[in-house]
Amino acid sequence: MKVYNERQNKQTEEEEEEEEEEEEEEEEEEVEEEEEEEEEEEEEEEEEEEEEEEEEEEEEEKRKRKRFF
What we know:
The mean pLDDT is 93. The chain has one domain (1-69). 97% of the residues lie in helices and 0% in strands. The chain is built from one helix and no strands. The chain is mainly alpha-helical. It is rod-shaped.
C-alpha cells in the first residue's frame, strides 16, 4: 500500500510539473505574440508617417512650381 501511495504521489507530482511547464510555455507564447503585434503596429505607424511626409513634400514641390509659373 505504501508503495502504491508513493507511486501515486510521484505520478501526481509529475503531472503537476507538466501542467506548470505547459502553462509557462503558453504564457511565453502569449507574450511573444503581443510583442509581435506591437512591433507590427509600430511599423505600420512609421509607414503611415513616412507616407504623410512624402505627400507633404510633394504638395510643397507643387506649390513651388506654381510660384515659378
